[in-house]
Every structure is written in structure tokens, then in C-alpha cells.
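Collaborator request, handled under Task 6.
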Amino acid sequence: MASDSIPVNPVSMLECRSCGAGAPVDEHFCPQCSRILALGRHGDYFSFLGLPRKLNIDSGVLERRFRELSRKFHPDYYYNASPAERLASLERSSYLNDAYRALRTPATRVEHLLAIEGLPPTKTEGDSGAAKVPPALLEEVFELNEQLDEIREQREAGADPAVLASRLSAAREPIERKRAEHERQLEALCAKWDGLAQDAPPAERRATLEALRATLLERNYINNLLATIEREVAGLGIRNQESGISQGSGIRNQESGISQGSGISQGSGIGDQGSGIRRG
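C-alpha cells returned to the collaborator:
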């Protein structure tokens, strides 16, 4: 589920449809009659899973919480229940899956935090056409586009694909270094957010969130540049072993480090054709 701007329902109490008793909005079952409650608010996946609004989450804790709630909400347990309970089971099961997908990987976790804290999602940057190049990446984009133009011209002229693959590998190196730098920056900002107290000045919290968003935008752009290089390598029609570049190496596996779940759309128009930037 994409982390669009999410309205968080301010209601603090729910009414049980079975017994009419009130229940805190973060409860899943009525404290009075133990029946499953209708889903009364949308937005905050951290709260739904009973987790603090932090960016560094123990994956084992998240997994256990997800499985515990999956069993409790499973529609099979409500086969003979009232229509209201069956509907509540379906709603909570679906919402739980969305919450787990959003919080399972660090980058999508950041996206969700930005959304519930009121910042626009990073994906909107490229929705209306060619994405704007982040200022910090202008030099890298200029240089990469020049190199890609030269490589394409040489390919059309019949140059040796192995030589062109070697050039692409060299072009990739500074982009990879930039990606690693942004991974470190993102990790540091996540730790900074987690270290902020609940009563920290609003300006400090906002500044940290904006820094997270800016770094994530740059990181996403970098990953698209790497994907552009991979497409160029694929267009050479040689084996990955010969090219020196492994397909998919620019975007880490979804189960590794902070680069998990970047939420990057490869069709976002970012990279060689979408940037619309050429030197001079």
C-alpha cells in the first residue's frame, strides 16, 4: 500500500456494536464483552500494531505482533458470528496486512511516518512528469547523462559491447558511492528521530522530518539512476558476468539494511530520459 498522505481519525473512543460499551480506539476487542470491534480509525499503523512511532523497529517483534493479530482477526474464526463481527474481522485483517507491509521495511516505514506526521509523500515529486533533480545530485546527473549519450552513440556505431559495458560499470561507481552515503545519512536521521522526546520542540521534530523526506527523495532518485544504468547494460545484449554489472545490484534486496522497500517506481521518469537535463 502506498504511503499517501493519510488522515488520522482523532476519535479516541469506539462503541462496541455488540454490547454498546465504549472502548479505546486502539483496542481490537471490547473490554466488556470481548467481541471484535469495528475498525474505528485509519492511518496510524504504528498504533494499530501496538508499536511506538519509531523508525528502528525490532523485526522479530513486528513479525510476532503481526502473526498474533492475524490469528485473532482471521475470518475463519468468525464464520458463525454476527454480520457486524464478520465485517470487523475482514476490515481488521485487511488493515493489518497494509500495516505490516508499510512497517516491514525501513524506507516504507519512513514514508508512512512522513504521511501520518502531515508531510507530502515523496512519490508526488515525479507524478506530473519528469521528476525534478535534487540540487545535491545535479553534478552526478549531468555527468551520467553525458556518459550515457556517448555510450548510446558508440553502440549505434557498432562499438564492442564489452567495452561499452566496462564504461557503464565505471559510470556506476560514483553513483554507488553516493547511494552508500545516502544510506548512512538516512540511518543517522532515523536514529535522530527515535531519540527525540515526545515533548521535543515542534520545530525540531519538523526539521528532522523534512530532512528525512529530502534524503529519501535523493535516495530514490539515485536508485532510479542505477536502474537506468542496468537498463543500458541489458540493451547491450551480453551476459551479466561479462558486463561486470549484476542486474538489480543497484537496489538492495527488500530484506537487507535501510535500503529495504524503497518504494521506487521504475516508471517514474527519473534517470537518463526522465531528467531532461543535459550540460550546456
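The cover message to the collaborator said: "The two ends are 41 Å apart (CA to CA). The first helix runs from residue 45 to 48. Please let us know whether this matches your experimental observations."
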